[in-house]
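Workshop exercise sheet. Pairs work together: one partner reads the sequence aloud, the other fills in the structure field after running the prediction. Swap roles for the next sheet.
Pair: D.N. / O.F.
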Amino acid sequence: MSETEKTQPQTAKPAADAPKDGVKSQRDRFLAFAFTASDILLEITGDGKIGFSAGASESLTGVDEDNSLNGKHWLGLFHQNDRPTLVVMKNKAVNGVRAGPLFVTLDAAFGENRKAIIQGMRLPGSDVFYITLNFNNLLMARVGELNRKNQENELLDKATFLEAATEMLNYAKSLGKDTDITMVEIDQIQKIKGTMDRKQWAEVQEEINRVIKSKSIDGQTAATLADGRYSLMHDKAVESDVIKEQIAAILQKKVHTDEEIKVKSQTITTDVQNLESKDTSKALFYTLHEFERKGTEMTIDTLNGAFKSYLSANAYRVAEFKSMVKNLHFKFNFQPILDLKTLKLLHYEMLCRFQDGGSPLEWIMFGEDIGMASDFDMAVCDRAVKYILHKANDKNKVFAINLSGQSVQNRAFTDRLLVFLDENKNAIPQLCFEITESHQIQDLDSVNTLIKDLQELNIHVCLDDFGAGSASFQYLQKLHVDY
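Structure field:
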């Protein structure tokens, strides 16, 4: 194609059997495109009325063609708790940019507790707002599964919320999308609870839970952290003021007091695009911990900021860990490992114990968290070999050194280890290594290469604590260990 040809506008030729009615053809294609991803399509006019509806409206909402949705106000389709959020979504919609998805509940007239996923878009040059409703997709399937596992209006606990929110954040990150996390706090909660009996408070709690769940991004990623303290992950279209107003209205109606009931909130921008998955989890954990301690008085407003605060709070521990590694401030306890069939002693596992008396597992996992596992493992190897060469009386005894799953994937560490072993050949007959599952192994091929290199030196390699990690059977299949 010549340069002149490249700059000429290109036009598509219609197919030989294309419909003559161009407008109808375009509309049919538009509807087909919409329904590949949704069940109902609605056009919302400037006055909030449904100007056009198409899709499986009869089977999904109970409204047939003779009793069309057309002409009805669109908010009437949805539960009153969701309407303020939907108004915000519509008002904040940017031309050509998809709004949502949001998890919503339909009005009771369309079926008790009927759920749907709603997305919207405003097109340039028009006051029409298009929305689609989806009643059956992967997210709905996930919500359905969670609904089966949880009671209808029961919120998650802290640990489950942390897991679910981290999973949702990673999913949002893969789409290049940020969400928000809002912490909600009811002021003087104990005084409020004191005005009602247990049954009355349970009813209030159920109404509050319903509001909070309805505002969460999937109808489930919301938690109770303590009496009167809640957290939820939600789309940016959801405004915390709406959540606070609805909760305050519930309390004001139920609590007999002339005083104004205050509900406070703190919204955290997730901004996780530059955070690794494990760092996202730490930042979220730190945020929840700070909210539990300080309530909405905490100073965190982004997860990136939370992660920096997490690192700052752990600065002293980092310095302490580095000092322990540098000065070898640990000792060994020796655990005999036996053959189950013969009860013959195979080797002694060298277990690290720190001089400060702290938990060995916590320190080792902390070392992995700050990227110093390989430095610690190298220090352990150095001290273990010195013990074997200078203190071990019986030269027939074999000693096993634990290596972190993080270290064995680190090429710089494995190179250092092989050089170190070459420099200490006399200790090799009394050495074996155990790979721990405290850190998930991703690069199984490189770990297998290290195992092969060690086995060529007649060093046995074991998989330690088999069954403790989620990938145990995959490791057993892929890693060519001796035990």
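Discussion prompt: Confidence is low (pLDDT under 50) at residues 1-20, 143-151. What would you look at next?
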